[in-house]
Sequence to fold (595 residues):
Amino acid sequence: MSDVIKKATRESYGEALVALAEKYPNLIVLDADLAAATKTGMFKKAYADRFYDCGIAEANMMGVAAGLAAAGMIPFASSFAMFAAGRAFEIVRNSIGYPHLNVKIGATHAGISVGEDGATHQCCEDLALMRTIPGMTVINPADDTEAKAAVEAAILHDGPVYCRFGRLAVPVINDPATYKFELGKGVTLREGKDIAIIATGLLVNEALTAADALAQEGISARVINIHTIKPLDTEIVAKAAAECGRIVTAEEHSIIGGLGSAVAEAVCESCPVPVRRIGVNDTFGHSGPAVELLKQFGLSAEHIAEVVREELGK
Amino acid sequence: MDEMLVRQLQIHACHVRMGIIEGVYHAKSGHPGGSLSIADLLTYLYFTRMHVYPDNPDFAERDRFVLSKGHTAPALYATLAEKGFFPMEEMKTLRHIGARLQGHPCITIPGVDMSSGSLGQGISAACGMALAGKHRADNYRVYTVLGDGEIEEGQVWEAAMFAAHYGLDNLTAIVDNNGLQIDGKITDVCSPEPIPDKFAAFGWHVIECDAHDFDDLDRAFREAERVTMQPVAIIQHSTKGKGVSFMENQVGWHGTAPNQEQYEKAMAELTEQLRRLEEQA
Fold:
C-alpha cells in the first residue's frame, strides 16, 4: 500500500498538546531540555507562557509536576522514556504515585526503535516500572489517531498517567473520523478463533499484517490492541483465552514486566492457556536503523507469523 | 516582636514538643531529634506567618508547606494539632496500624499539603506549588523545610537551580542546620558545607538565623518577604533535640524513641518549662 500515512506518536503528542490547550486552560507543559525531540517544542512555540523547561534534571521535573498538580494544574512532564520512567522512577513513585497527583507523564523515544542512539537510550523497561506503581494508569498507543486520543483521555482521567510514545514513524491504522478511545478497554481489530495475537504500540500494525498473511494460509488469528497496559482489560484477555485457546503477545518492550507479563498474569488467574511472549528477550539493544533493529529483534509481522505457526504446529 | 506574643509562641512550641514526645513514645519509633529542632520554626510559621485555615484546609489560596525532611513528621503533626487541624490526642496514634498519622507526611492528613519523606523530593514539589502560584498570579507563599543532611541529595540542587531560574520569590526554603545526620556530624559524613555559600551560588537570597529565638526568626522571615525575583534560603542554626536536655546535640536521638523512663523525664522537663512560661505570661 503506497498511500499509507506514517507518523511518529511523539509528533502526535506535540500536536495533541497544542490542539487541546485552549480547551483545557490548566494544561501546562514541562520538559527536560528535549523539547525538540519530544515534540513539546510545538507547544512551546504556540503557548510559550504555559511551557517551562526544567533543564537536564528529570528528578526535579517530576517533583515540580507533582507540586503543580497539588496546586490544581494539569502538568505534562515530558522526557525520553528512559529518563522519565527510569531515572526518575523513585520520584514518580513517591512524589506523584503515592499522593496520587494529577500528573501526566509524556514519555517519548520508548523501545529499541530509538535506533542509532543505542542501548543507553532504548528503554524497554518502562512499562514494567510504571505498571508496579499503585494507581498509575499506563497507556501505549499504536498510532497517531490513538496517541492523540490518549492525550485527551489522560487529561480527563483524574490521577497519574504514563503515556508512552515512539520516535519512529508508524502507519496510521485508526480512522480519526470514527475512532473512539476508551481508557482501559482493549480493541478487537480482527476476529479469529485459532489463536489470539495481543499487541500494543507499534506492534499492533505488525500483528495485523501477520494476521493477514496467516489468513492466506488458513489460520484464523484474532488481533487485539491493548492501548491501556494498566488497568488491563482482563475481560477481553480472558475471552480471547477461552475462545482461541492460545495467545501470542507482541510488544516493543522487555518480555519481563510489560504487556506479555500482564496478559500472562491475567490468563493464569482467569483461564490458563499457553501464552507466548514476543518482545525484547531480556537483553539490551544496540545502535542501528530502527526498522532493521525491529526486524533483528523479532519485532515484526514476519516473526509474529512464524511464532504463531510454531505455536499451532504448522 | 511583642514580648507577650513571644511568650505565647513559646507556650505553643512547648505544646508542640510535648506532642512530639507523646507521638514518638507511643509509636515506639520515629525521629525526635530533628523534630524538636524545628518545633520553634513550625510554631513561628503556623502561628504568625502562614495563612492556613483548620476549618478549610484545602482553601485554594492558602499558603503551602512541604516538610521536605519528612522524617520529622511528628513536629508537623503536633504543630497542625496545636493549630487546630485535629486533636493533639491523636499524636498517640502516630505510626499505629489503621491510624491516619503515617510515619512520614501523607497528603490525605488535614493540613498536610504534600506527601514527603524520601529526602530531596519535597523542595521540588514546593517549587511546583510556587510555580503554579506565579503562573496564575496567586498571592500565596510556599515554605519548605530541609535537613542539612538532606541537602546532600542531588535533587535539592536541581530544584535550587530551577527556583532561581524562574525567580520564585514566593518560595522560602529553610535549612534546619543542626549539624547532625544519622551517621554522625554532617561535616564528617559527607559535608554539605558551606551551606549559605552554596545557595547563594545557586542564585538564592540567603539569610541566617537562630532557630530558637523567635525575634530572630521574625527578622529572617520579614526580610524574606521583602525579597523579589529570587527564592529565599533561610539557614536556621538549630540544636538537634532542643528542649529535652538529654536529647540535645545527641546524634543517637535522630531516630530513636524514648523508653518509659526517658519519656517521663522528657515530659517532666517540658511540663516544668511550660509551667514557667505560663507563670510569665
In short: Chain B has a mean pLDDT of 98. The interface with chain A takes residues 60, 64, 66, 106-107, 113-118, 120-133, 135, 154-155, 158-159, 161-162, 165-166 of chain B (CB under 8 Å).
